[in-house]
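Protocol step 4 of 6: structure prediction from sequence.
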Amino acid sequence: MTDTTLAQAGTNIAASLFAEHEPSSTSPDGPIRQGDVLEFLQPGDAFPFGAGGTLGFVVTANCDLAYAKNWNLITYVPAIPVESYVKQFVLPKEIQAQRSDAEKAVRNFFSESRTSDPVDRAFEMLRLGYEPEAIATLVSPNGKKRENFITGVHRLLALEKTENEIERCSHTETFCPCLRGHCKRLDATKSMKKAAVDVLRSGVRERLKRFPGDFLYVHKPSPHHAVGYVALLRLVSSVPDASVVVRPLEETPATQARRVARLNTLFCHRVVQQMAQVFTDIGLPADYEAARETHLTMISENWEY
């Protein structure tokens, strides 16, 4: 496993499956419009994820751009390479789910106990660094149940270590060594019938089948970006329109982004529509209207003419 595995795996096959209908042709002299694809020259400064190759999909309405009602700002949603999405969003959730299942399995060994004392004591000993063999005396002094409990605790400890390491490792040099260490530790526990790497791949594959509503996959947002990108629809941002250029010759030291393509109408509308759906369910407190009316009334009454 290398750092470029996720980016390279299946690229040729995917290219044959997708028609090149996501990017739309655009005049190099045309103005910025909704659906334009921006390439940021210094993505590390613009995005909290520090993902190389980060793009932005313009979501500002065309009428606002045409009549300068956008306050000199271009609003966009960032889009990161799919391998960055997997590393930053999918793998941590998969490890977390595996760790949660391992903890539940350990707790199930105490299901026959009428009180919570044994399980609470067991996890306290676990946090204090006791060996699994010592904690196992709370379950059974010997026998198969004791062996299974010890195996389960070793699995839980291995997953907790991975969960902590993933939070600290970067998404470039140290990420894949972190996963190799995870697989090696988990295989050493002998707690699974399948190899840890196969379990991890299977979990990631299932999660990629169902993207959350605030993420949108775009296979080829521009002719120069064909590795697959994921738009982060909840992370709406803006950039001054004066710092965005439509042609490379216009770039200056103050340039933050350049237009590299435009999504065709179908994908442009989908990005905006799905982004709107993300925020549709956000409501305000029931007493907001009354509080607003009272506050504005007080302002008008105390206004000095």
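Step 5 (inspection) to follow. DSSP finds twelve helices and nine strands in the chain.
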